[in-house]
Amino acid sequence: MSSPVRVAVTGAAGQIGYALLFRIASGQMFGPDTPVELRLLEVPPALGALEGVAMELDDAAFPLLAGIELSDQAETAFAGVNVACLVGAKPRGPGMERADLLKDNGKIFTGQGAALASAGASDLKVAVVGNPANTNALIAAANAEGLPAERFTAMVRLDENRAKSQLAKKAGVPVAEVTNLAVWGNHSPTMVPDFDNARIGGRPATEVITDREWLEGEFLTTVQQRGKAIIDARGASSAASAASALVDHVANWCGGKPTADGDWVSMAIPSDGSYGVPEGLISGFPVTTDGNGTYEIVQGLELSDFAQQKLQASVDELQQERDAVADML
Ligand code: NAX
Predict the structure, then answer these.
(1) Is 267 helix (H, G, I), strand (E, B) or coil?
(2) Distance, CA of 226 to CA of 165 (rounded, Å)
(3) Complex ipTM more than 0.90, yes or no
(4) Best mutation site among 9, 10, 15, 16 for ligand 1, i.e. most ligand atoms within 8 A of its Cβ?
(5) Considering the entire predicted model, what is its pTM?
(6) Catalytic amino acids?
(7) Domain 157-324: CATH architecture, name and number where available
(8) Which band of pLDDT confidence, cut at 50, 70 and 90, is reported for residue 97?
(9) CA 308, CA 289: separation in Å to the nearest integer?
(10) Could you say which architecture CATH assigns to the domain 5-154?
(11) Where are the domains of the chain?
C-alpha cells in the first residue's frame, strides 16, 4: 500500500459532495491500492450537515479511508493536499445576473486559490467543478502564487460523458464503443461536443451516424441543455453524474488511469494557444494523460467550419467572463 493521497473537497455537504465522497473513499478515484485522506471544506452553516456526512463515511467502513478532517477554514482544509476538488460555489439566485454570479464566485476562488498556494502540497493538482467552472479555475490559478497554472483544471467531463451516451444511444451500441469525444470551450450551453473527431467502434462517428442534421441539431442541443433537462425532471441539478465525471477526470489525470492508446478525454485546461484559443483561457480540449499528473493537448485534429464557428462563440464567452473578473486576476 502506498501512502495516503490527501484530497480536499469543497462544498462537501452539497449534493455533488454527497455522491463524490463515497466514490473517492471506496478507491474509485485513485485505485484500489491507494488510501485516501479526505479534507472537507464547508461554510459554517453547513458544518452540522457535513458532520453527518462524515459519520456516514465512518459507517461505510471503507478500508482505504485513512482519515477525515472537517473545516470551515480553507487553509486548514487544504493543508498538505495533493488534489483539491473545488465543488463548492454560490448558486445563481433568482434575478441574479451572470456578471454578479461571476463576481460572487470570484471572491470564493481568489481566497481558495491563495489558500491552496500557501497550504497545499508541492504536487498539488486542482479540479474545479463549481460554476462558472472555467473562469473560477482561472481566478484560483491567478491567485495561487507560485503554483504553475497548468495545475488548475475545470471539469467538462460530464459534458463528454453526456455526449458519448447520446451517440451510443443513437448508434445502438454500448457507450464504451464511443471514444475520442472531445468537448471544446466553456462548460456552459456554448460548449462544443466534437462529433467530427469522435469514433464509434473504432470508425468515425460520422460514418456510423450519417444524419448530420441530427448531429448538428438535436444531438448538440440535447448535450448542451442536458443540465436543464435533469433539473426539470428531477427537481434538482445533476449530482451523481457530476461526481462520477469528476472521478473520471481526476483518475485519468493523476489517479493512475492513463488515457487508452489512441483515445483522448476532455479537460478544461489553460490554453497554450492551440487551435486558436487565446493563451491562458481555461478551455475544454482533447488531452491525453499519463495517469500520473501530466496531460497533453492532442494536436492536429481538424475542426469543421461548423465546429470552428461554435468554438469561436464559446471562446468569446470565456473572454467576456475573463473581462468581467479582470480585477481578480
Ligand atoms: P449544492 O448547492 O448542493 O452544494 C454546494 C455546496 O457548496 C453547499 O453545501 C455550500 O454550503 C457549499 N459552499 C458554498 N460556498 C462555499 C465556500 N466558499 N467554501 C466551501 N463550500 C462552499 O450544489 P451542487 O449540486 O453540489 O453543485 C456544486 C457546484 O457544481 C455548483 O456550482 C454547480 O453549478 C456545479 N456543477 C458543475 C458541473 C460541471 O460539469 N462543471 C455539473 C454539475 C453542477 O451543476
Answers:
(1) strand
(2) 12
(3) yes
(4) 16
(5) 0.97
(6) 187
(7) Alpha-Beta Complex (3.90)
(8) confident
(9) 24
(10) 3-Layer(aba) Sandwich (3.40)
(11) 5-154, 157-324
